[in-house]
Specification:
Layout: E1 5-10, H1 22-25, H2 30-43, E2 47-52, H3 56-69, E3 72-76, H4 85-94, E4 98-102, H5 117-121, E5 124-127, H6 132-148
Parallel strand pairs: 1-2, 1-3, 3-4, 4-5
Helix pairs in contact: 2-6, 3-4
This protein binds 1,3,4-trihydroxy-5-OXO-cyclohexanecarboxylic acid (DQA).
């Protein structure tokens, strides 16, 4: 049987992890997080498709394509979480289970970060646990896909 595929999407500025505001986001790079996710996905018998873009339209195109190529989406939409109705609409249209991740605890930060459009269409949300949050999201996605398909 084919292994389920999980698309992990990362939004703007996450390519700068490791050097970007390390007191908030830590020293882990996106490549470190990808490596940890690949290991975790392998243990969970999932295929992983890990991507980052600084462009809203690119993220939306990937979400649209996921309809045919993935079984679930884990997304840290970064700044677009707080602004993008279009990305929220694309996630809703995908008909795939969505888990939202944020490295920092957005609820302990500025008021404008407390609201996320992605949360409206997410099955679950993991915030404030750094890169480990992605691995927890993979655990949760594996369980969702095993019990609901
Ligand atoms: C973030 C939180 C967002 O508010 C911010 O714009 C980011 C990163 C996080 O992972 O903590 O770029 O999504």
């Amino acid at each position: 049987m084919a292994r389920p595929t999980v698309l992990v999407l990362n939004g703007p500025n996450l390519n700068l992890l490791g050097v970007r505001e390390p007191t908030i986001y830590g020293r882990e790079t996106l490549a470190d997080i990808e490596e940890a996710c690949l290991e975790r996905a392998d243990t969970l018998e999932l295929d992983l498709d890990f991507r980052q873009s600084n462009n809203e339209g690119q993220l939306i195109d990937w979400v649209q394509e996921a309809r045919d190529s993935a079984d679930g989406i884990i997304i840290n939409a970064a700044g677009y979480s707080h602004t993008s109705v279009a990305l929220m609409d694309a996630l809703a249209a995908s008909d795939l289970p969505v888990i939202e991740v944020h490295l920092s605890n957005i609820h302990r930060r500025e008021e404008f970060r407390h609201h996320s459009y992605v949360s409206r269409v997410a099955r679950g949300v993991i915030v404030g646990l750094g890169g480990h949050g992605y691995e927890l999201a993979l655990d949760a996605m594996a369980r969702l896909l095993a019990t609901e398909s």
